[in-house]
UniProtKB/TrEMBL annotation:
Location of the Pyridoxamine 5'-phosphate oxidase N-terminal domain: 9-137
Keyword Oxidoreductase on entry: yes
Signal peptide stretch: none
Keywords of this entry: Oxidoreductase
Lineage: superkingdom: Bacteria
Pfam families for the chain: PNPOx_N
Protein name as catalogued: Pyridoxamine 5'-phosphate oxidase family protein
Gene3D superfamilies in the record: Electron Transport, Fmn-binding Protein, Chain A (2.30.110.10)
InterPro entries, A to Z: F420H2_bilvrd_red/Heme_oxyg, Pyridox_Oxase_N, Split_barrel_FMN-bd
Organism: Phycicoccus sonneratiae
């Protein structure tokens, strides 16, 4: 543990909070796909995302089977967690899957509006499960 108390259990708890993450997936013919997204995580568990199966990130992830997720915050402390991931599997998303993930980030009318938009614009969404394989984290506040 460092002097700030930001050790691996604290990093896992931080990752379990509803931050917007950036998932980076290697691409063989150019820069990686690095896009912000919502995710779900419980300490010592897997990470799940809901994303269109036809998206570049989903296609690359299916090919490479690995990715890195980075989340950070600047208030009340400057902290980040970066975790390498391996693909566990994917399956078609249900309305309950979409709602559960979006409800971590939105409430009320914003949640309902998002769900209506997603149903219309992302009909091929899937739930992707990723297993953490390597952790990097720091509290840069000092």
């Amino acid at each position: 543990m460092d002097e700030t108390g930001f050790d691996q259990p604290a990093a896992q708890a931080f990752l379990a909070d509803p931050h917007v993450g950036v998932l980076a997936v290697a691409a063989p013919d150019g820069p990686p796909a690095a896009v912000p997204l919502w995710y779900a995580y419980e300490p010592d568990g897997d990470i799940t995302i809901v994303t269109p199966a036809s998206s570049r990130k989903a296609r690359l992830l299916e090919h490479t089977r690995t990715a890195t997720l980075v989340v950070d915050t600047v208030e009340p402390r400057v902290r980040y967690v970066s975790v390498d991931l391996e693909l566990v599997g994917s399956r078609p998303a249900t309305d309950d899957d979409r709602r559960a993930l979006a409800a971590r980030y939105l409430t009320g009318g914003a949640l309902e509006g998002y769900l209506a938009m997603a149903a219309e614009q992302f009909p091929d969404e899937q739930v992707t499960t990723l297993r953490p394989t390597h952790w990097r984290f720091a509290d840069l506040t000092g």
